[in-house]
């Protein structure tokens, strides 16, 4: 249910509408760049040539990856509360559905919101674990990418620079999270000075929000748990590489496993850009950029991108819809939870 009267709701929705329009415009541009100069006859021929037995392998690998993601998230939540695996998998499935369905990455809030309905974990503390998860994802993929550079020493400057920027952001996030946990009182004092500048009716909620957010970083206190999460992160992303490689084989691309790793990091950088829901455009353009680096014709790269995107999104949608009746959410409900029980 919306809160407030009609004009107020419209005013609150303006930033969302602007982000949605900006995302749609960006996606339109990227779709145009993806299909510019394409012979669609060759794209159709490419679909006929696919060996769909390897597509089944891809689906199995992606399902395994999704399951391991939910297990790893449970590890990150365990310092707060142990959550059963069925709840973790169902919330993860619906959470990923929200990410592709809601623009401007606001779907990232779905998992923290939904896990509060399955446990006593605060939403902001759960959000803290999502930050930890994203940091581990980035550093793991970058480490794998760094190892690949020994086999592919020459890559475009734009890719190397992008990877360096992601690395710097990730290391900064790691340092900030560990500092906030190790120097909790000092961090809360710094944030309190900033928070005191906002209206008093919001200050108390913001202080509570920062306090619970730091709770989400508690995994850094447990070395054994950190090691387990690190190993799971490598396993998750190596399965991701194998999934991409299985599609290479399905398309009869004569590419090495290292090419799948490079494509994975280009895709992750590409879909980090807020575009239209479902990563339409940025996913396809990123795939084309990655595959053409290795000599794959643009038409074949587009065919690959279309199938890869369709399968990945379809898996997320099917899993999300299966568990959605047990994990209902809305933007207004997430906002209310964040404001009343941060």
Please outline what is shown here.
The protein is an all-alpha fold and 342 residues long. It has helices at residues 6-35, 40-48, 52-77, 85-101, 110-115, 123-148, 157-182, 184-195, 200-215, 223-250, 257-271, 282-292, 298-323, 331-340.
Beta-strand content bin: under 5%
CA-atom Rg in angstroms = 21 Å
- The averaged pLDDT comes out at 88
Strand/helix succession: HHHHHHHHHHHHHH
* Overall geometric form: globular
- N-to-C span: 20 Å
Q: Pairing-aware structural class of the strands and helices?
A: mainly alpha
Please give the largest β-sheet: none
Total DSSP helices? 14
Number of strands: 0
The helical percent reads: over 70%
Unreliable residue runs:
1-10
Number of domains: 1
Describe the fold and architecture.
- The structure is a single chain.
- By secondary structure, this protein is mostly helical.
- It has one domain (63-340).
- It has helices spanning 6-35, 40-48, 52-77, 85-101, 110-115, 123-148, 157-182, 184-195, 200-215, 223-250, 257-271, 282-292, 298-323, 331-340.
Topology:
Elements: H1 6-35, H2 40-48, H3 52-77, H4 85-101, H5 110-115, H6 123-148, H7 157-182, H8 184-195, H9 200-215, H10 223-250, H11 257-271, H12 282-292, H13 298-323, H14 331-340
What structural keywords apply?
342 residues, mainly alpha, globular, 0% strand
